[in-house]
Amino acid sequence: MGSNGADSTYYDEIYKIKIHEVTLRELLILQSFYVSRTTSDIIKLIKMQPDPRFFYKTFLELGGANFCSILSFDSYSMESLLSEDNEQYFSEEYPIIYKNKMIKKDGKGYYYTNAIENALKNNQVKAVNLLIAYIVKYQNNFVSSYMFLKNVPVLLDKGIALHDLLDSKVFNVVFDFDAWPGNHNDDEECIRAYTGSFFDIRQSYNEIFSDFVPLEDQDESEKGSEDAKKVAKIKYSINLLAQVSMYMT
Q1: What's the predicted TM-score (pTM) here?
Q2: Could you tell me the residue range of the domain that residue 72 belongs to?
Q3: Residues 120 and 196 grouped into a single domain
Q4: Does residue 116 form part of some domain?
Q5: If you ran DSSP here, which 8-state letter would residue 228 be given?
Q6: Sign of the CA dihedral running 169, 170, 174, 177
Q7: Which residues contact 141 (CB under 8 A, 6 or more apart)?
Q8: Whole-angstrom Cα distance, residue 56 to residue 68?
Q9: Which of 149, 172, 195 is the last residue of a domain?
Q10: What is the DSSP code string of 138-190?
Q11: Is residue 216 domain-shared with residue 105, that is, in the same domain?
């Protein structure tokens, strides 16, 4: 959320999460996972469920996480849960891969993690590839970029292909604000640096394009020849890759 001028307010929707009330059957399934001794037992439990939506639901009993994120330590579980056979249960409006707030082992404080970091921690490269493919197809928006702020160097170090991710809407955002000029007589591509928050860019046009005179503000001498009077529509986009911490460990 942010202000847009002195007398108005606008809202940027980040993401939505549905918190489900756990049923007795679901509690029994949860308990079954915790007592499973091998990943084979976990896979059997997954395949035994007639409705996979259980794994995508978010429960307060899981600290606001879902079992799809929790099971990301195992590639076989991810292969089953993120299969396109379950596509009818996937929704960009309600993502299943997002940051989870975790309590530290000593009970003092907390930290944030996500399914990708969990898979990387357990060296599950296949699970990471499946998660990235899922995000590119079903969570293809700039909000997903915040799950990659610290782990892109690790992904590169492990040789994980990132072409589709970097070429998706996760890092390349096209936007259109009423306060930004929509037309100009200069149709050349222009690249400018911006170091502020993406959520503040709405009010940052004059800062970014301080020397760029909108078409309606130009006088006749500035407009120049007849060719210069041809109006082109401006397309604005921002590459969010610059916010990634590019360090190697």
Answers
A1: 0.82
A2: 24-172
A3: no
A4: yes
A5: G
A6: positive
A7: 92, 169, 170
A8: 6
A9: 172
A10: HS-SGGGGGGSTTTHHHHHHTT---HHHHTSTTTEEEE--TTS--EES--S--
A11: no
Whether 72 and 166 map to the same domain: the answer is: yes
**Dist. CA 143–CA 200, nearest whole Å:** 15
110-113 vs 172-175, strand pairing mode: unpaired
Q: Cα–Cα distance between 15 and 249 in angstroms, integer?
A: 31
Q: Write out the H or E segment, with its range, that includes residue 2.
A: strand 2-3
Report whether 133 contacts 94 (CB < 8 A): no
- Residue 112, beta-bridge partner list: 101
DSSP assignment string, 32-54: HHHH--SHHHHHHHHHH-S-THH
pLDDT in tens, 1-45: 444 444 456 666 777 888 899 899 999 998 898 888 888 898 888
Q: Domain boundary at 150, 172, 194, which?
A: 172
Considering the domain boundaries, does residue 101 fall inside one? yes
Count of domains forming the chain: 2
pLDDT above 70 coverage of the chain, percent:
87
Question: What is the spatial distance between Cα 62 and Cα 56, in angstroms, rounded to a whole number?
Answer: 12
Residue 97 contacts residue 136 (beta carbons within 8 Å): no
Write the pLDDT tens digit of every residue in 192-240.
989 888 888 888 998 998 887 666 666 655 555 555 567 889 999 999 9
First to last CA, the chain: 35
